[in-house]
Fold this protein.
Amino acid sequence: MNRALVCIPTYNEADNLEPITRAVLAAEPRVDILVVDDNSPDGTGKIADTLAAKEPRIRVLHREKKEGLGRAYLAAFRWALAEGYTYIIEMDADFSHDPRYLPSLLDAAEAGADLVLGSRYVTGGGTVNWGVGRQIISKGGSLYARTILGVGIHDLTGGFKCFHRRVLEGIGLDQVQSTGYSFQIELTYRTLKKGFTVREVPIVFEDRRVGQSKMSRKIFLEALTMVWKLRLTV
């Protein structure tokens, strides 16, 4: 039986963690959950342990410190591969990625796609509670990356995606350079360069319900420069 794992990185997500794990388990009975906590000072890790003690479909991976979203996901991927999971899903803890889309991502993967992207920018996709400025930055960022990298993917910066394990085994996780926003661009680009099939399915992205965004100027600038680095080195 092919097993699926939803990886949820957390840093100060105490208010979101229990509701999001409950919603994920209810939305898709085929998945387990791995919470990857970067030693959150608000007690998120302890909440995760409590949830895991009550629910066998929830696991927890504790990390010593915050090193960026990319490093948290890489740790989760290695854990998932070691545990024998076939499908590995990236998902935010803040409900910006609605658990109701999990079945469509997993169905597309089971139908043969190597990587399935939850896309805001294909027919049926969109965003909710975003100002004009943020929409311009997001769409512009995807267009910028698409143009420089020469790929046809509409939503290169999205972080709601499902990998088949053969992708994570084949793209060279040890060679991944990004830690922040550009991590999503890099993994999709490496997937395409290795000849794997990528499919986009529509999602509606809703801004986080509670807590603070982890986006920063440093993370954004990393993405601008990393795109060129990927073009020249991958």
DSSP finds eight helices and nine strands in the chain. The radius of gyration is 16 Å. The mean pLDDT is 91. The CA atoms of residues 13 and 163 lie 24 Å apart.
